[in-house]
Input
Amino acid sequence: MKTEEFRKYGYEIIDWITEYYRNIEKYPVKSNINHREIFNKLSDTPPENPEEFHKIFNDFNEIIMPGITHWQSPNFFAYFPANTSFPSILAEFLMSAMAVQGMKWETSPAATELEERVMIWLRDMLGLPESFSGVIQDTASTSTLTAILTARENISGFDINNKGLFDYKKLRVYCSTEAHSSIEKAVKIAGIGRKNLVKIPVDDKFGIIPELLEKEIKKDREGGNIPLCVIAAIGTTGSTGIDSIKETGIICKKYNIWFHIDAAFLGSALILPEYKWLIDGIENADSFVFNPHKWLFTNFDCSAYFVKSKELLVRTFEILPEYLKTLSDRKVNNYCDWGIPLGRRFRALKLWFVIRSFGVSGLQEKLRKHISLGEYFKNEIIKDGNFEILAPVVANVICFRYKPSGINNEEELNRINENLLHNLNRTGKLYITHTKLNGKYALRIVIAQTNVERENVDKALEIIKKKAVI
Output
């Protein structure tokens, strides 16, 4: 593609994106195409000769778009959001154009130094201790794995990195029964094993029970096992249950156990003074993660990982072959040594664009709006009388179910609500997901999409009430 062609089609794509956002609510939120429908429309073989860009772009519109679920629709209430914003999108253009490989300071000084500065901004916005150092990872799953690997090397004096796990077969990791599945994946990858992940029961608010955590730790120590790491959640995935950071941190300090905090979604709320209570006791944490790509309007992927000891982190991952040695190695942050991959995208650029474009006050305003819409939805559901709230509403995630009068059988209620979920999503007018809480099938709505308004919530309420019939 020549420069002028790039300009021509670049403007066309900008126009397409602009119209896409103007008309995004006209698309069905969740794609309802059949399995393999997209695959079967794609050519069996790659083209032998170059194809015109207009033909490729036309196929994008005709073949690909029908199979897209529109995460940026204000009627998207599923999972957790993967939000973006126009400043973030524009930064992504620049990132893609420059195609910076930001593995070391030498490979792009600006990428490294901007990341260092932006992570200090975030640390201070959230109210984390000044002793924390930050780095951008791709996802919270990677950040949690990074924490477990660092804890593993710390407890073994870096012996496992050198000799393998052979002498450390009894390491134990702890989390609640409501914690994210990425923890289970991480203990598998780290060589600790799923059987050594201890899941602690939760209370009626879906937070970990500290007394039971300490009981399991004592039992493991007495049985010759080695307590390695406790992972607490500020906002579990299913219900946004809150683990007590203060009590859990005291236990970890008492037994010299690495304390990692997963605040992937709800961590963004820490920029609000009224949510600082969530990190009471943060001084005992060893590492912390939250995802700006969820609720801080920054394109996926962008996971903010903070660690108390950057020296332990770097020593865990650092490897320096001759071809990567530079004169500046001991003077700067080389972020390729702060995590798993060598290659790194210039993610800090989009975060910088977003924070500067919104300002802290603008970000706070957005989050408060979403939280108030969550409260509004909860109150309207309760007022209706035919629904039941199944978990505390901490911010803007509401777990509820349809509970028609006269039906008390749990299996029947689960069936009714599962059918309701599918009927709602088939409308194409909204998209919600589910979880199970104490065996109850819960409809789960997350009011956090960047551009969601009261009218979108009202429309969702209207459709839910209309479809909620036996």
User: Anything to note?
Assistant: The domain at 93-354 is CATH 3.40.640.10 (Aspartate Aminotransferase; domain 2). The chain has 15 helices and eleven strands. The chain has a mean pLDDT of 93. The radius of gyration is 24 Å.
